[in-house]
Amino acid sequence: MEFFNKVGKMAIGSRLRMLTETISEDAAQIYKLYDIDFQPKWFPVFYTLQNGEELTITAIAKEIGHSHPSVSKIIAEMVKNGFVSEQKDKTDGRRNMVSLSEKGLETSIKIKAQYADVTNAVEELSAQASHDLWKALDEWEYLLEQKSLLRRVQEHQKTREGNQVQIVAYEPRYAKNFRDLNEEWISQYFKMEEADFRALDNPDSYIIEKGGTILVALYNGEAVGVCALVKMEDPEYDFELAKMAVSPKAQGKNIGYLLGKAIIDKAKTQGARKLYLESNTILKPAISLYRKLGFTKVAGRPSPYERSNIQMELIIT
């Protein structure tokens, strides 16, 4: 166990697999001890059928929590070894009904002594342990059902990589990044329009000099995201959140959210009360991000963009 002490919790899969293999090897020997020619992996199917019921493969799979192909393979092995039989459903010829064969029914009686001894052995083992493995397994299964290990790792990956993101103020040296990152996504889904060229070709005069802001996201020193706060001459809105873009190679690192939060914080420092933005509903991740940032949909307003089909606002509190 020195290896697992050294590697730590990231080897949980290997350790559980080793424990499973140890128990499975013992289980195979236990069946031999009771003179039952049986494979441990057949047990869930066998136990489900031991009361003499006829069930479909689908019903068995649902009962034991296995996939349909996995159960089909196990049943095929059990049929070959004489423990179960299959026959067409009398009411629906498209379905096969599975039940224990005569040999299987005889085994279900013979195996009861094994059940009792195994149960007592496991209870003895549990009593000697400091922690209740059975309860722990229940807890782990429930928690992983709520959120998988994969999802948890993805969240920690996003947090770690997000901590490596640096949000900086725009400088003229980022002009090409500002244009390229926006042109990349616009050209992928739509077409560049006159309003795009005005903002992207002249960010200093069109945005900065009019009281707006551009922020740049750096990841490992490379500009991978941008977002602008454009001053609006509008009695209802102070600024428009616009020209947000994140490089495809840097997506999944929480950069859009970090840029959005930073640009909203910037608007707050400038006394803004309401922000406005335009987008298109085909951009589902973007719309989801705006909602996460607190934006809500508003009635349509005239737009300089052909591609715009949704307008949103954020009331700053």
Largest sheet: 7 strands, mixed
End-to-end C-alpha gap: 55 Å
CATH topology of the largest domain: the name is: Aminopeptidase
CATH architecture of the largest domain: 3-Layer(aba) Sandwich
Tell me, rounded to a whole number, the average pLDDT: 92
The chain-level structural class is alpha+beta
Strand order of the largest sheet: 4-5-6-7-8-10-9
Strand content: 15-25%
CATH class category name of the largest domain = Alpha Beta
Report Rg: 31 Å
The secondary-structure element order is: HHHEHHEEHHHHEHHHEEEHEHEE
Q: Count the strands?
A: 10
Which residues sit in consecutive blocks of at least 5 with pLDDT less than 50?
A: none
Q: What is the overall number of helices?
A: 14
**Per the principal axes of the C-alpha atoms, what is the gross shape?**
elongated
Report the CATH superfamily of the largest domain. Gcn5-related N-acetyltransferase (GNAT)
**Which range best describes the helical content: under 10%, 10-25%, 25-40%, 40-55%, 55-70% or over 70%?**
40-55%
What's the structural domain tally? 2
Written overview of the protein:
There is one protein chain. The protein has 14 helices and ten strands. With 317 residues, it is of the alpha+beta class. The protein starts with a helix and ends with a strand. It has two domains: 2-129, Winged helix-like DNA-binding domain superfamily/Winged helix DNA-binding domain (Arc Repressor Mutant, subunit A, Orthogonal Bundle), CATH 1.10.10; 165-315, Aminopeptidase. The radius of gyration is 31 Å and the shape is elongated. Helices cover 51% and strands 18% of the residues.
